[in-house]
From TrEMBL:
This is LysR family transcriptional regulator. SUPFAM superfamilies: Periplasmic binding protein-like II, Winged helix' DNA-binding domain. Belongs to the LysR transcriptional regulatory family. It comes from Nocardioides imazamoxiresistens. Keywords: DNA-binding, Transcription, Transcription regulation. Residues 2-59 form the HTH lysR-type domain. It comes from the Bacteria. InterPro entries: LysR_HTH_N, LysR_subst-bd, WH-like_DNA-bd_sf, WH_DNA-bd_sf.
């Protein structure tokens, strides 16, 4: 096996095509440099240099090997600095889980802030519902989540990053769209609903039934994704309760109406991370997100 010292000697000779000048650059004498090259050639089993008393030239094998030797030396030179930056948390990977609904304006803000503050951090994205994000955080498959409450505070650190209104998405031309006031519970009597799944969209399901007396015999469809709900609304299959940010989808044929609720902004989105994370980049990512305004 060859050494980096032998690689460096070979690259220097290949650049100078002169053993004397190469030895001078390496602060050594010519005989030990010649022995380094000979050991390297024996190690890899090919002749890298044609040399005599007047000239030194690279063989075809030597030209090919020079490319890889230069690359290996560059990696070796960069490795200590890279290791230090990874240990400091300024270089590395942060794996971010997010709910589909969090892409409506929040996710891009999170990514932009981390990228500006930490340009050497690579961000890997994973779309998951909150339950899946919690499981992935516990398994250390992701480092940071954009998820809905509640969370176990003993296991997770969390920070509120967005709160917003719950609105009613209705088909264009629906009678509710003619109201000159927020929609109230009584206005929804007998209206077909596109409802959140109680298992796959548990946060929104609990939020809606906690705020409104949903009549389950009016539920026409149950789905897990907000975007799917709005497409069903556009098709005239019912009305749906969605976060205000969902209007950014811009789906034709859908109007988003204010809804009177006990809380003005009941929909919450949190940053979530495992308290026992060992990723040194995570604290830096969280610091970059400290100025996020929950009210947008």
């Amino acid at each position: 096996m060859f050494s980096f010292e032998q690689l460096r000697g070979f690259v220097t000779v290949a650049e100078e095509l002169h053993f004397g000048r190469a030895a001078e650059r390496l602060n050594m004498t010519q005989p030990p440099l010649s022995r380094q090259i000979q050991k390297l050639e024996r190690s890899i089993g090919v002749t890298l240099l044609d040399r005599d008393n007047r000239r030194v030239e690279l063989t075809a094998a030597g030209r090919a090997f020079l490319v890889e030797a230069t690359r290996l030396l560059a990696l070796a030179d960069a490795a200590p600095d890279l290791a230090r930056r990874i240990a400091e948390g300024t270089t590395g990977i942060v794996r971010v889980g997010f709910t589909a609904a969090s892409t409506f304006g929040v996710l891009t803000d999170v990514l932009d802030r981390i990228s500006v503050a930490l340009p050497q951090i690579e961000l890997d994205l994973y779309e998951m519902v909150t339950r899946e994000q919690v499981e992935a955080l516990l398994a250390h498959e992701i480092d940071l989540a954009l998820a809905r409450p509640p969370f176990d505070p003993d296991l997770f650190g969390s920070r509120l990053i967005r709160r917003e209104e719950l609105v009613v998405a209705v088909p264009a031309g629906h009678p509710l769209a003619a109201l000159d006031r927020p929609v109230e519970v009584g206005d929804l009597a007998g209206v077909p609903l596109v409802m959140h799944s109680p298992t796959k969209a548990r946060y929104f399901y609990d939020l809606v039934v906690g705020l409104l007396p949903v009549e389950h015999h009016n539920v026409a469809h149950t789905v897990s994704q907000v975007a799917t709900m709005i497409w069903l609304v556009a098709a005239g299959r019912g009305v749906a309760f969605v976060p205000r940010s969902a209007a950014r989808l811009g789906i034709d044929g859908v109007v988003h109406l204010p809804l009177r609720t006990r809380e003005a902004k009941p929909v919450e989105l949190h940053l979530l991370w495992p308290r026992d994370s060992t990723n040194p980049a995570l604290p830096h990512a969280l610091a970059a997100l400290e100025e996020l305004d929950p009210d947008g």
